[in-house]
Write the structure tokens for this entry.
Amino acid sequence: MTSYKLHMKRLILSLLLFIAITVLANAQDIRFNAYSAYVFDDKVSSDYNSTSYFDGKIEGCFQWGGGIEFMASPTKGIELKYLRQDTQAPMRYYDNGNQQTDFNLDVNYILVGASNYFKGVGNQVEPYGGLAIGMAIFNLENPDKNSHTSATKFAWGLKLGTNVWVSEKMGLKLQADLLSAVQSAGGGLYFGTGGAGAGVSTYSTMYQFVLGGGLTFKLGKN
């Protein structure tokens, strides 16, 4: 199973790199995007039975990251993006009796996405929408037991936003996102001892609403 997970990680990373290189070869312009946002709370639970469950939430927190966006045309962009958040996950769970712990959790998203830009007011306002796919890498710590576990899950995202260009090369980003890691809790990521002993047999998909923005910089000639 460990070998299979490692193979899947390498496959996803290779696919993302291949897409990025392919788009770069055809790009007319390149942008660098810096992100800063707030992630809202999300409830996760798995009530398989009275001796195999967890119930709680992933707390809201600050999220930061960056991306390289390759403009295949003036209205089409492909972005390779990294996002990071460090938070806590207060949970009730069963592990040789009912337990309650504030887990430490960090989430790393690696996504490749497509954006479509629309004409705004003059040349200063640039609305856009887009979607992305990739993976979320979770690192979970149980401070009560000094144990750790990690998992890599398929992830996807949707975004709506606007670039407000304050100069020819720099703009402000206003953006809302929906990020999801499919079957991210339960199975491979245990809210319990940090190992297979937690025995949770069902899954909970994580959905995160993100509101923020950042800066965008034009690095190409256009």
